[in-house]
Specification:
Layout lengths: L13 H4 L9 E15 L7 E10 L2 E3 L3 E5 L6 H8 L7 E6 L2 E2 L5 H10 E4 L13 H11 L6 H14 L16 H13 L5 E5 L7 H18 L2 E6 L2 H7 L2 E6 L2 E7 H7 L3 H8 L51 E2 L7 E2 L14
Parallel strand pairs: 4-9, 4-10, 7-8, 8-9
Antiparallel strand pairs: 1-2, 1-3, 1-5, 5-6, 10-11, 11-13, 12-13
The structure holds adenosine-5'-diphosphate (ADP) and magnesium ion.
Magnesium ion (MG) binds next to α2.
Length: about 350
C-alpha cells in the first residue's frame, strides 16, 4: 500500500523534536508522520479489507505551556489523533515522541509513569464519570492508583484542594455526578485529570456538550489552570472560533491530514487554505445560539475509506486547479516569508488578500 508517509521528507531527528532551541519553548509532545488505518469489512463476499484512513501522516508539535488547537469537521480524525498521542490507540505508522522519548517502543510498565503526565478531558462529562462514585471517590481514585498521598487525610486534603482549583466547594465531594449541572460535571472531570499532576492534557471537545452560556466559564478555567500550572494542551474542537480564542497555534485537519498550521492570529488574519477559509466563513455571526450555522462548504466530507485522489479537498474546493489538485498530493510546507505558517495547497489564497473577518 502506498501512503503519504513515504513521500514525506527525511525522518525527524529525536533530539530536534526535544527542542534544543533556547529562544523558543521546548517541545513536549511531537508526532512524526503518525497514521492510523482502521480495517473495515469491505462487504459480505469480498476478500479485500478496506481501511479507514482516520489519521494519515500527521506531524505536529506541542510546546511546554502552549495550547495547540486542532480543528476540523466531524470525522476528520481529531479524536483518533489525540488517542494516538496518549497511546490509547496503537498507530499503523509513525512515531510519538514525548519529552524526547519515543513512547511507542515502551512497555506497559515503562509507560506507567508517563501515563500520569498526560491526561484527557472528554466532551461528555456525564458519561465519562462513574455515576455510582462520589466526587471524592472519582477524584481520589487516581491519587490512590498513583500513590500520590501518604495517608487518607492527605488524600482528603488533596481532593478538597483540587475541587477548589476547579471552582467547586469542598461539600461537593460527598455528592454524585447526577447532582451537578453539565458545567459542574466538566469541572469534576477537570479535577480528576489534574489529580495526578499532569503536564499535558488532551482536551477533546471539552465544551461542545455544554450550554453556550457556560462554555466561556470552562474555557476560562482551562486557561487559568494553564497559567497557574504551566500545562500544555492539545485543544480539539470543530468550532474554529473557540479554538482561535484559546490556542497559541492552530492546526487545521481535513480527512486525516493537517492542511494548514499557523500561529492563532496569523491563521485568523491570513488563512491560506481554501478549507480554512471555508471554516471561517461557516462561523456563526454575532447573535450566538439563535442563528443556525451557515453551511458554506458544499458537499459532504468524502469517505475516509476511499479518499479522493490528489488533494482530498479538491472535490469541494473553489480554487481547484484541474489536472493538478485532483492528481498530485500537496505536502504541508512553510509559507514563503511567513515563519511557522504551513499550508498544504497548490493554489493557496495569496497573503495580500484580506482575512476572513
Ligand atoms: N475504532 C474505530 N474503528 C473504525 N473506525 C474508526 C474508529 N474510530 C474512529 N474511526 C473512524 O475514523 C474517522 C475519524 O474519527 P474521529 O477520530 O473520531 O474523528 P473526529 O474526532 O474528528 O470526529 C471516522 O471516519 C471514524 O468513523
Ligand atoms: Mg472527536
Amino acid at each position: 500500500m502506498t501512503s503519504s508517509l513515504e513521500d514525506d521528507s527525511a525522518p525527524i531527528d529525536v533530539s530536534e523534536l526535544a527542542g534544543d532551541e533556547p529562544q523558543k519553548r521546548r517541545t513536549l509532545v511531537a508526532t512524526d508522520r503518525l497514521a492510523k488505518y482502521f480495517p473495515v469489512e469491505a462487504g459480505l463476499f469480498s476478500r479485500t479489507t478496506n481501511f479507514v484512513r482516520a489519521v494519515d501522516g500527521v506531524s505536529i508539535k506541542v510546546r511546554r505551556g502552549e495550547t495547540l488547537g486542532l480543528v476540523g469537521e466531524s470525522g476528520c480524525g481529531k479524536s483518533t489523533l489525540g488517542r494516538l498521542i496518549l497511546r490509547l490507540v496503537e498507530p499503523s505508522y509513525g512515531r510519538v515522541v514525548y519529552d524526547g522519548r519515543d513512547i511507542l517502543h515502551l512497555s506497559q510498565s515503562q509507560m506507567r509513569p508517563l501515563r500520569r503526565r498526560m491526561q484527557v478531558i472528554f466532551q461528555d462529562p456525564y458519561s465519562s464519570l462513574n455515576p455510582r462514585m462520589t466526587v471524592r471517590e472519582i477524584v481520589g481514585e487516581a491519587i490512590r492508583i498513583h500513590k500520590l498521598a501518604p495517608t487518607r487525610r492527605d488524600e482528603e486534603a488533596m481532593v478538597v484542594d483540587l475541587l477548589r482549583k476547579v471552582g467547586l466547594r469542598a461539600e461537593a465531594r460527598d455528592l454524585y455526578p447526577h447532582e451537578f449541572s453539565g458545567g459542574q460535571r466538566q469541572r469534576i472531570g477537570i479535577a480528576r485529570a489534574l489529580a495526578v499532576q499532569p503536564e499535558f492534557i488532551v482536551c477533546d471537545e471539552p465544551i461542545s456538550a455544554l450550554d453556550v452560556s457556560i462554555q466561556a466559564q470552562i474555557v476560562n478555567l482551562l486557561q487559568d489552570l494553564q497559567e497557574q500550572l504551566g500545562l500544555s494542551y492539545l485543544f480539539i474542537s470543530h468550532d474554529l472560533k473557540v479554538v482561535e480564542h484559546v490556542s497559541h497555534r492552530v492546526a487545521v485537519m481535513y480527512l486525516g491530514k493537517i492542511v494548514e498550521q499557523a500561529a492563532s492570529r496569523a491563521l485568523y488574519e491570513h488563512a491560506r487554505h481554501p478549507y480554512t477559509r471555508a471554516l471561517f466563513a461557516a462561523m456563526p455571526v454575532a447573535d450566538p445560539g439563535r442563528r443556525k450555522l451557515r453551511v458554506l462548504l458544499e458537499g459532504d466530507v468524502p469517505s475516509p475509506i476511499n479518499p479522493p485522489t490528489g488533494c482530498a479537498f479538491h472535490p469541494r474546493c473553489p480554487r481547484i486547479v484541474k489536472g493538478k489538485c485532483d492528481v498530485d498530493t500537496p505536502t504541508l510546507d512553510e509559507v514563503l516569508g511567513a515563519s511557522g505558517h504551513k499550508v498544504a495547497c497548490f493554489n493557496p489564497h495569496p497573503h495580500d488578500q484580506d482575512g476572513p473577518s
